[in-house]
Amino acid sequence: MSELRRVVVTGMGIVSPVGNWPGPLFDNVAEGRSGIRLLPAGERASPVQLAAWIDTPIDDASKGAPPDRVTQLALAAGRYALTEAGLLERPELLADMGVHLGTGSGASTTTDEAFYRLYGENRNRLAPMTLPRGINNAAASELAIRFGLSGVNNTYSIACASSSSAIGEALRAIRHGYSERILAGGSEALLTYGILHAWHALRALATPDAQVEASCRPFSADRNGLVLGEGAAFLVLESLASAQARGATILAELAGYGASCDAAHITHPSSSGQVKAIRHALTDAGLDPGAIDYVNAHGTGTPAGDAVEAESLRTVFSEHLHTLPVSSSKAVHGHLMGAGGAVELAIAIIAMQKNVIPPTAHCRVTDPGLGIDVVAEGMRQKTLSAVLSNSFAFGGSNAVLIARRCEE
């Protein structure tokens, strides 16, 4: 068996409710500036009151008919990542580059509009591009077409673990020599009439706080649910040898990936499955629990979800808990579902670069029953060498990623 290759991050691109590009996003997360707002009343009133959405223009870089919102977000974030990696003007390097994209709901805008026309307006014809725009791999395919990425093109749809799984599987593909470089991440745009109704029926969403932007409060004793958001994030992953050969700036080394399934319940998480994924990631990275300096938690703000994740962290990190700060950035950008893992890994990597841990905004009084060190008092300074990001999904699918400083 040939020696496994090291994999590094050489570019990151983000569009989110709290900023586009990694720098502005992180500044807003670190300062606790929230993108959560009241949804405006529309022609079709939604029972959901809160959401986090992008209100800045998103470039439509496609040809022909405008693509679905999820594809527009993917194109913007993908372009930013390729630009930061110095690859956008290198077609000879893009030619064999792959795409690994995660999305939970896919092109929900297109499908939602199509069903409304069929059933709400009783139309008997749909736009000819409804199907190719609405399938789950449309965004990944559009990325490949737009930027000439003719390597392997995979789409992962694993609810909240979608983009973390896409990144983890890209790590494996490069590590084992199947690809030299991959654009990996996720995109989600699920703030549609039908999807919002479905989430409302699940009774997992937060109710508006008197201070609206503080309605999502992960790990807080008074937390009462999650807030949905939209966004996209991509990382350029490539072998260390490739990055060094072209003189790329290395942002971090992607060191570990762990995945598991609770195999227990479709909506209620299980600590045993999460523990297994975290331990797999640590083993994959060759690290002991004490080597992790910060956890960017899944932390959605639901009473049960936060409690189970805290239990998982207590089990794995045990005596190291007192030196392991934990925070959730979902408090300000909302739950980005399939894109969340990629956004949160990017936040953890920037935290490591800056040696600054972003806080869990709006966590007024940390739930005393959690037993973990929740960063809630504002950003915290700490030297960070290795960071861990959790993504736990409906169906019990878990994906955990570890990044560390790259010592060439």
UniProtKB/TrEMBL annotation:
InterPro entries assigned: Beta-ketoacyl_synthase (IPR000794), Ketoacyl_synth_C (IPR014031), Ketoacyl_synth_N (IPR014030), PKS_Beta-ketoAc_synthase_dom (IPR020841), Thiolase-like (IPR016039)
Function summary: Proposed to synthesize NOD factor fatty acyl chain. Involved in the synthesis of a highly unsaturated fatty acid moiety, which forms part of a lipo-oligosaccharide that is responsible for host specificity.
The keyword Ribosomal protein belongs to this UniProt entry's keyword annotation: no
Pfam families, alphabetized: ketoacyl-synt, Ketoacyl-synt_C
Keyword Transferase recorded: yes
Superkingdom per UniProt: Bacteria
GO terms classed as biological process: fatty acid biosynthetic process
Keyword line: Cell inner membrane, Cell membrane, Membrane, Nodulation, Transferase, Transmembrane, Transmembrane helix
Family assignment from sequence similarity: Belongs to the thiolase-like superfamily. Beta-ketoacyl-ACP synthases family.
PROSITE patterns: KS3_2 (PS52004)
Domain Ketosynthase family 3 (KS3): 4-405
GO MF term (any one): 3-oxoacyl-[acyl-carrier-protein] synthase activity
Subcellular location: Cell inner membrane
Designated name of the protein: Nodulation protein E
A GO CC annotation given for this chain: plasma membrane
Source organism: Sulfuriferula plumbiphila
